[in-house]
Amino acid sequence: MITRSAMTLLQAQVLKSTVRDPARQKRPCIASTIAASALQRPYLSTSLVWESAVLERPVKMVGPCSAAPASSLSLNELEAATLPGQTTLTKELEIATTCADLRGVVDSVRQGFVVERVPKARALDWALTRGALQHRSGGFFSVNGVEVGGREHVLLYQPQGAVTGVLTTVIDGERVFLLQARAEPGCLNEVQFGPTIQSTPANYMRLHGGVATAYVEDFISYQQDVDVIDDTTQLDLGERYLFKSKRSILLETTAPAVAVGAFVWATREAIREAVGVDAFLNIDLRSILSVARWSVDAAVGELTPRSSRVRQSLGMPLRPDVLGRIFSMLGRAVAPDQQARFKPLDQLANWREDEWGWSERANAQGFGIDFHEVSAAHREVKSWVQPLVNSAGEGVVLLAARDAGGVMEFFVNIAFETGLATQFACAPSYVRYPGEQGDLPRWFTSGDTRVLSKTTESDEGGRFYRDASAYMIVELNDPDALETEEGAWLRLSELKMLLRTSNVCTIQLRGIISQLLDARCDD
Asked: What CA–CA distance (Å, rounded) separates 1 from 504?
């Protein structure tokens, strides 16, 4: 038996210290700037020179790169040429200031990326071991049969918590974010922007035998020039994973590195434009953006919603009685028959194995397990074969909004999901997973609604093959709709408090809230 108490999500992980060593406030200088032409990234429209005299202070933007002298020296040669007494670190960095800039990075990463469905016999590193489909290393994830409440399920099991995090820095009072264009076999459009790091321990410990994960040391070890802004533990897909959680981290560095390859620094305006684009920012990145601090005042330099109605809701005071009711519903007990038990894949009555993988005899969960061979120039390993969940249809995620006395509110559902270690979590107003069957809610199909934002998003491309869902925020003309549903109407300020609390909100809720940065709610 797998007990949820034994799978606590508050894993014993030591947070990085943010205490700085005054004796190490300065770094050796670089006498000249690095030429922008050496980066060979012409698709970025803006290239800036940053100068930092003391690393304890925010980096200062000092002008366009055309004003900076180019140098043919290597970075090592420049550092070797440092004169005694110099304390200024000058580096030439490029920043994406628009969504169009970001598209150029995606296009470059897509080159050389190929995905092909193959028979399971080609997956030499994967085998059915002790009733579960596992990687030979014992890392990454496994595909397991699970019995819950007398019902059989296939769920992914990944006891090692993944690390997802974004590295940021501040220039002239404005935060910029280091994004990674990730080519994943299951992504819609093949390449989407993800966090700076999106890695399981199996990846950053290099069980795959490939190269090291870039920037991982900033997130898993102490670095003098890095401060922790956010560090929470968050839930993953409760109907696809068994007890999976991940760390969601936002860091700030005072010594930003030049972004090369699949990485790019992006302004908050570029990100705000991008959240409204289909399958462009992956769900892990959207999750971190939703958990991050937002400001009602754009002058503060943090992420700021475009809509005045959204900003007003963000600035409203919290209501202790409403939040207390939410936590009361989340704390309910579930009958013992809801405990999960592993069951061998080959003993599941509704599942069968063939040369391509595993599939259902009758549609219940709505997906199968296929194998795919992947070639990717910008990943730690250049080619591999792996299983992917392949769902039979598109999912739907709806977040209902209303005007309550002039204040915008959003309906959060309290949902039970099979694989959640917490059993219950705050979810969007309605969720239908890809491949699942079911009618859309009447409050949505009645036609008495207005769509405020809509995107199509895919689940994590490293586990799911183009499993897409329509994510929509819809405003209801009837402010009393959903009053009989299990949940509560929340101000955005209250939603943000829940989002910034560990293990309270589903990944679909974290994903859809990111749309509020750009949602056109004032029209």
From this structure: 24
What's the pLDDT at 206? 64
Closest CA to 268 of 247, 248, 297, 246: 297
pLDDT at site 76:
36
* 512: nearest Cα among 483, 470, 465, 466: 470
Confirm if 490 and 245 have CB atoms less than 8 A apart: no
| Side chain identity at residue 498, one-letter code | L
CA distances (Å), 111 to each of 104, 211, 385, in order?
12, 19, 19
Mean pLDDT of 97-118: 93
**199 or 40, higher pLDDT:** 199
The answer to whether residue 435 sits within a structural domain is yes
Distance CA 185, CA 459 (A): 11
pLDDT-based confidence at 140, cuts 50/70/90? confident
Radius of gyration, alpha carbons of the chain: 24
In a domain, residue 411? The reply is yes
How does DSSP assign 65-133, residue by residue? GGGSPP--S-HHHHHHTPPTT---EEEEEEEE-SHHHHHHHHHHHHTT-EEEEE-GGG-TTEEEETTEE
> What is the residue-wise DSSP string for 190-240?
SEEEE-SEEE-HHHHTTTTS-PPPTTHHHHHS--TTEEEEEEEEEE--TTT
**High-pLDDT (> 70) share of the chain, %:** 80
At 295-334, the pLDDT tens digits run: 999 999 999 999 999 999 999 999 999 999 999 999 886 7
Phi, psi (degrees; rounded to nearest 5) at 76: -65, -40
Q: Which domain holds residue 416?
A: 310-335+392-517
Count of domains for the chain: 1
- Tokens 């049969």 locate to 145
CATH of the domain at 396: 3.90.79.40
Inside any domain, residue 316: yes
Q: Is residue 427 part of a domain?
A: yes
Q: Quick one: CA torsion of 234, 237, 242, 244, rounded to 10 degrees?
A: -20
- Angle (nearest 5°) at CA 402 between 396 and 407: 135
